[in-house]
Amino acid sequence: MRAEPVQIFHEAYRELRPRAPIPEFGIEFFKFSNINNTIRLREGRILVRISDLLEGAPQPVLRAIAHILLAKLYRKQIAAGQAACYRKHIASRNIAAKSHLVRQMRGRKRISSALGHHFYGLLGRPQMTWSAIASRTNLGHFDPAHNTIVVSRIFDGAQVPRYAVEYLVYHEMLHLKYPVKLRGSRRCVHSTAFQAEEKQFQHFEEAKKFLARL
Question: What is the pLDDT of residue 118?
């Protein structure tokens, strides 16, 4: 018989906190715009939201989700096997395809403008935009669901060398050419081929040093 989500969370809670009384749980499958799971403690009640894309997931995956969320909530170490089980499931071809479709249908990409001080609107595809804020921690990223490259506004200034911006865009374009792949239970973001081609950028070393200073 298939265990209910509340029962699964009760069992995961007991494993992590064997002597603590089990609190009341409120668990729902929620229509996030991506595969996302959240957990909060409110007035002694644990509130859990799990992506509706995972509603039909096998029980080992639901148990892994329960373990991971509770471990994060109570600052416990996440078991490697549970993390691997979850990563393998969401990286599967079926779930990845559903996630991509859901992001396109539900997600809303905030497009600011490609008209910075240096691009002058002369940008081809994929769609490109400056970030909403001048972030130093997220310098740029490629969003495959919306075919968009987002560049941090920290680069939109006269003091930024052209090669730094070109390198960042070049790096993100390589993510189009070399999509993330799954090797066992681990995600391979920057493959050997990706890294080899990245080093072919004309000002690779100078750009890396400039980004490191940021």
Answer: 40
